[in-house]
Protein: tRNA/tmRNA/rRNA uracil-C5-methylase (TrmA/RlmC/RlmD family)
Amino acid sequence: MSETPTTDSAPAELELLIDGPAAGGTCVARHRGQVVFVAGAVPGERVRARTVGGKAATFLRAEVVEVLEPSGHRVPDRRRGYAIAGGPRLFGGMEFAHVELAHSRELKAQVLADQLARIAHLDLAPTVEAAPGETTGLDWRTRVQLAVDAAGRPGMLAARSHEVVPVASAPLACPEIAEVALADLRLPGAERLEFAWADDRGAVIVRGAPGSGPLSELSLALGPQWSILAEEPAGSGRGSNGADGGRPGVGRSGRRSRGRTSARSASRRGGAAGHRQLRVVRGSHSLTQTVLGRRFEVAADGFWQVHRQAPSLLSSVVTAAVPADTTTITDLYCGVGLLGIGAAAEVGARLHGIEGARAAIAAARINADGLDAHFAVGRVDAADLPESDVVILDPPRAGAGPAVTSSLLDSGASTLVYVSCDAATLARDLKALRAGGFEIESLRGFDLFPLTAHLETVTVLRR
Ligand SMILES: C[S@@+](CC[C@H](N)C(=O)[O-])C[C@H]1O[C@@H](n2cnc3c(N)ncnc32)[C@H](O)[C@@H]1O
Structure:
């Protein structure tokens, strides 16, 4: 066991006592006064961990290699359930795979409270509520992105790596996606598979250049309920149509890197979008999702709330915050209109929606059929906000930011309903909104990304 100081270039093994939870699904420990963010740990444990880099002068990052004194909240790593023969090699993105589901929600609530306190000086003790009917936390994703390795095998990326770990089925997926037998698929030339499931149909987007053979294999492997879309070949002249998803600088391969979003490309909460136009190999580019009795059209590669219960849950919670006498609602970052349409229909209000993705606005206009609804394509941070009593906002992880919070303070709105998937940017924006005169009426956390480090919040503010 090394007792020498660690640096980026010299990994070391440390014995650590794990303290509280930290952002990103890690836990905090200390080594010779230096903070260590440890992946794969549970608070209260004693572990042996290997450093994986970090700024040695300020903090270290490490991964558990052996648990010396386990927490009672530790469970066998659920990622092993997705291993193919020859596995298991573990992949990234299921930060709480080794933690009891209920306890993972408590850890998320502690991180949320900590960020609200540190950034916004708020003394709140929010809980993180389970989605209705959640039991295992393993079957919720209606949107799944998989990488494809050089041999054409679908898999997940290893943590902080481009290495593809092949999997037998899509992790955390809803049953309809989970039953697709990935271990049998070979799609050489493909770079990424994106699955989306709606009411009773699904779509698979194949990115990269798989050629006709692999696409035929995919067609045979999937039932008729699945549409298949493929990227147009590079150089076909059919690139992005230029409609901007409006997420500069945001971007992961999912909920966080959305600067290159085309109107027909993914605009998930952080995810990088596709770059090329899609061709329908079979089926349709559009899916229909029914939420609380209302039908929503959404493109297979357009933004949609990922947890199968999220659309109805968020729509209900947002609508409940809208006063019955509301005459006008503005829905910022409205996507295909899910939150604003539900609320406007309930109280009979006029609706304005603003969203960066042109294709989403086209769908929103269809989805708002029968309502007094007006939608505009544009960047929220550059928009003049329409006069309204209530503003709903559901920004990407980057949050609203100073330009938008300033517009909200200048607007005539007396109620804000802020839906967020990032506690840190929420806290920053709440600080600005409170300083400008809004008061927090309620703040609820929801575990809409079970067994990952992410959570959703809905905050109601009034003035
Ligand atoms: C988290 S999604 C919310 C969508 C919608 N509220 C829903 O529940 O389906 C965020 C949306 O904001 C859009 N967006 C991101 N940055 C934007 C910006 N600066 N201006 C306008 N829209 C933006 C994205 O295209 C995406 O549709």
